[in-house]
Write a structure and sequence with these properties.
single chain; 642 residues; alpha+beta; Purple Acid Phosphatase, chain A, domain 2; Immunoglobulin-like; 40 strands
């Protein structure tokens, strides 16, 4: 008969087991983070086999859909990864402290059921301003850090740490360069960040990190775009993950739009990766460059460029649908035009198999069968399915829906050349994506008819003119409504003679609850002075929202000619040069870019920039495209004076 364990022996065994577990964790997990608050939960690692598994949760916010992230956590608890990484955008973000606290409390409650350790990585919704950065550091101690697990180096980057969007500070880059230098012999290096900075025109310091990585195996993971994309760069895999509840049209895997968690099995040969939809599993290259090309081609094809022409009596005409297949795969289309009580068609069932690189046009004749005028008939609609035939065991790569055939021509169906200003003369090009119709136009202000000139070559202009253009069916004589564009011959704005000017712009700073740009003449500035940059945060000091700035001074341009200016702002802005409104970007809105044209003589010209901030985010940038240049460039303050 076995002797029972004594309580003391049982206690020793339990403590020994805990010591072994602690020793195992300490030998596998290393991090120099010494703050009291840590950017990870205190849950244990789930297991420690030679080949370990972990999961990645991607963007929850940016238009988050309730319940998805929680569902993902439930699935992860069933899958039992050893730990979970993130790529940021965990909360929506705010400038109000109580709102920030409540959002993190909501997220903490959502995360609490997760049975294993979770590593935080900040996104632009988590750290959108200095208040949110302070809150992050108070909660988690660090916004960028590293650790080693099973001799694999994990780098958690903060892509909101620099001076602009999606950038890294010099301190952060130097930190990770030192980490890499200190750990040259790890099995693999994995990098996690929110913004896929390798896809941006400016790498914002990231290229230095890539250079430090070049002699080791590594893999990149990011989020932010809410659209999955796998790419090979520098002979390594770079991944942009989709969403785990963030805003998405969810058009399917090949569009890169799906909710998922990413499952990684780490081996000596690198990470083996599978994307797990919350209702299935997807291969790692489901939305690679090939699928991206198919996606873009399918979206273009599904535009249809539908148009209705009508005869002079407004009783009959044509319906034209255009489908262009720009992909390298065969495109399949099925359509059915719904029965309409007010008109009859000579055909309503449409089928087509469109070869790669080919375009097809459907032409249907219609006539009214009621006393109602054309303008009052029921909408003409088509039910459609269009797509590419999937490979075996792959989800359909197609779009389905209802397409309303427009009774009035759309702006994009006749393209007018820009710019609409010219100095001496212009040759105006007209374009149309609609096959089977021709452009008739006028320049004398009259409405185009079948007897008006047919567009076959650029239209020469030497004076102001309004070009009106419409599409006509040569066979039936029926046509569309017209579109118009006015072109202006303009003189050069003469340069201003300046005896003495100083670098930078003068500014006046105002406070108030603005939804549009105010009349600055009716306001008293809180303060004024001179600036050598558009640093709105510095100008507003501690004020986060509800202020306005008026900049005035001079801008110098190098040559005579027509200039294009661009203003990017959040919220509203306007640009005036020589007292003329060039760019109107007014209104309460997120960051967006607007442009305009002006003819300038070489030299200096008075400039005035109006700006206001409503709430949550401020930005102001000025760009210029010089005459004959095909690129826009940021206006540097060496060009500005007062």
């Amino acid at each position: 008969m076995m002797r029972p364990f004594s309580p003391l022996l049982l206690l020793i065994l339990v403590l020994s087991s805990l010591s072994i577990i602690s020793a195992q964790e300490n030998s596998s997990f290393q991090s120099p983070v010494s703050t009291d608050r840590k950017p990870w939960t205190e849950k244990r690692f789930e297991n420690e086999p030679d080949n370990f598994q972990f999961a990645i949760l991607t963007d929850r916010t940016g238009g988050h859909r309730k319940g998805v992230f929680g569902k993902a956590i439930e699935k992860l608890n069933l899958l039992m990864p050893e730990f979970v990484m993130s790529v940021g955008d965990l909360i929506e973000g705010s400038r109000i402290p109580d709102t920030i606290d409540s959002q993190w409390a909501e997220f903490d409650k959502l995360l609490q059921p997760l049975a294993m350790r979770f590593f935080y990585v900040p996104g632009n919704h988590d750290i959108a301003n200095e208040l949110m950065r302070s809150e992050w550091l108070e909660r988690y101690g660090r916004s960028y850090y590293h650790f080693i697990y099973k001799n694999v180096l994990f780098l958690a980057l903060d892509s909101t740490d620099g001076d602009d969007d999606a950038t890294f500070s010099d301190d952060q880059i130097n930190y990770f360069k030192k980490v890499l230098a200190d750990h040259p012999d790890v099995r693999w290096t994995l990098l996690f960040m929110h913004h896929p900075v390798w896809m941006y025109r400016s790498f914002n310091g990231f290229i230095e990190l890539e250079e430090a990585l070049k002699d080791r195996p590594y893999t990149m993971y990011a989020g932010h775009h809410h659209r999955y994309m796998q790419a090979v760069r520098k002979e390594r895999n770079y991944y942009v993950l989709a969403t785990t509840g963030g805003g998405s049209q969810l058009r399917g895997p090949q569009f890169g739009e799906f909710d998922h968690v990413t499952w990684i099995t780490m081996t000596d040969d690198g990470p083996r990766m599978l994307n797990l939809k919350l209702d299935g599993m997807l291969r790692h290259d489901i939305a690679s460059a090939r699928e991206a090309a198919l996606r873009d081609a399918l979206l273009q094809a599904a535009d249809f460029n539908g148009v209705m022409t009508i005869n002079e009596e407004r009783t009959a005409g044509k319906i034209l649908l255009n489908i262009a297949n720009t992909a390298e795969d065969t495109l399949y289309f099925d359509g059915r035009i719904f029965h309409n009580h007010h008109l009859e068609l000579d055909q309503s069932i449409l089928h087509k198999r469109i070869a790669p690189g080919q375009a097809e046009a459907f032409v249907m004749s219609w006539h009214l069968n009621s006393e109602l005028p054309f303008e009052r008939i029921d909408p003409v609609e088509m039910d459609f399915t269009i797509g590419f035939r999937p490979e075996v065991a792959e989800p359909p790569f197609q779009l389905e829906g209802t397409y309303p055939i427009p009774k009035v021509i759309k702006e994009q169906q006749i393209g007018f050349m820009e710019p609409i200003l010219f100095l001496d003369q212009a040759e105006v090009t007209l374009t149309t994506p609609v096959q089977g119709l021709v452009i008739h136009y006028t320049t004398d202000g009259s409405q185009p008819t079948l007897q008006s000139p047919v567009y076959t070559a650029p239209i020469p202009l030497k004076e102001d003119a309004t070009i009106k253009a419409a599409l006509f069916d040569p066979a039936s004589g029926s046509g569309t409504d017209f579109l118009e564009q006015t072109y202006h011959k303009v003189p050069l704005h003469p340069a201003t003679k300046v005896r003495r000017d100083k670098p930078g712009l003068s500014y006046q700073y105002f406070e108030g609850n603005f939804q549009t740009l105010p009349d600055f003449n009716t306001l008293s500035p809180v303060r004024s002075g001179m600036v050598t940059d558009f640093d709105l945060e510095q100008l507003s000091e501690d004020r986060l929202d509800h202020f306005a700035v008026l900049y005035t001074g001079l801008i110098e341009v190098p040559e005579d000619g027509l200039y294009t200016f661009y203003v990017r702002s959040d919220d509203g802005s306007k640009l005036f040069i020589d007292g003329e409104l060039v760019v109107d970007n007014d209104g309460s809105h997120s960051a967006r870019t607007r442009s305009g044209y002006i003819a300038l003589q070489a030299g200096k010209h008075p400039i005035r920039i109006e700006y206001f901030e409503d709430f949550l985010g401020e930005e102001l940038s000025l760009y210029v495209q010089n005459p004959g240049d095909d690129q826009r460039r940021k206006v540097v303050f060496e060009q500005l004076s007062h």
